[in-house]
Amino acid sequence: MEPGILFRIILVGNAGVGKSCILQRYLEKGFDDKYEVTIGVEFGTKQIKIGNKPIKVQIWDTAGQENYKSITRSFYKRAHGIVLMYDVTDKTSFDDLENWLKDIKDYANDGVDIALAGNQVDLSDCQDNCREVTYVQGYEMKLKNNFCAYHETSAKTGQNVNELFQELCCVLYKKHQTKGLGKNQESFVSLSSSADPRKKYKKCCK
C-alpha cells in the first residue's frame, strides 16, 4: 500500500482577509470572530483521504503585514500548494493580489499550484450590501492566472472551505501520481520518513 503523503500548503494574502479563521474552520469546524493578528507563521495539520489514500495536509498561515513578508517568503520554496486569499468586502485586498503573485513568482517553485479564495462572502449578503468584489471578477482572475481552483468562502459559516482545500489537494495528488513536482521543486514528503509536526495555530483573525 502506498505510504501516506504530506502536502504543504501556505495561506497568503493581506492582513485581515481571514486566513487564520479559514485555517481554524478547516481544522476544527469552529469560528471565533475575535481578531488576533498572526505574528510570523503559524501552522496546523489535518488528515484527509483522496480515494483510499491517506494524506496529511500541513497548512501554514502567514502574516499579511509588510514587515513580516521576509518571513513569509522563506516558506514559499517549501510549499506544494498556495491558497491566495482576498476579502470580497475589501477591493484593496483584491487589487493587492498582483503584489502577492509577484512574490510567488519570485520566491516559490515553478509550477506551484495556486487556489484562489474570496473570503468573507457571508458579509456580502448583509443588509448594507458591503461586497466590493464580484464573483465574476474573482473568476476572471482565476482564468487570467490559470489558478487550479477558485471558491468564495466563509470561515463563519464554513461555506466552500472544505471544497477549497479538497480541490487543491486533489490537484496535488494527481500531480504526485502522474509526474511529481517540477524538476526544481522539492518532492512530496512521505510520512514514513517525515516527523509529525505538532499542531499549532492562532485563534483567529478577521
Please report the number of helical segments: 7
Uncertain spans: 181-187, 190-206
CATH architecture: 3-Layer(aba) Sandwich
Q: Evaluate the radius of gyration.
A: 16 Å
**Any idea of the CATH topology?**
Rossmann fold
* Biggest pleated sheet: 7 strands, mixed
CATH class category label: Alpha Beta
Question: In words, what does this structure look like?
Answer:
The chain is an alpha/beta fold and 206 residues long. It is 33% helix and 23% strand. The protein has a single domain (5-193), classed as Rossmann fold (3-Layer(aba) Sandwich), CATH 3.40.50.300. The protein is globular, with a radius of gyration of 16 Å. The termini are far apart. Residues 181-187 and 190-206 have low confidence and may be disordered.
In short:
This protein has 206 residues and is of the alpha/beta class. The protein contains seven helices and seven strands; from the N terminus they run βαββαβααβααβαβ.
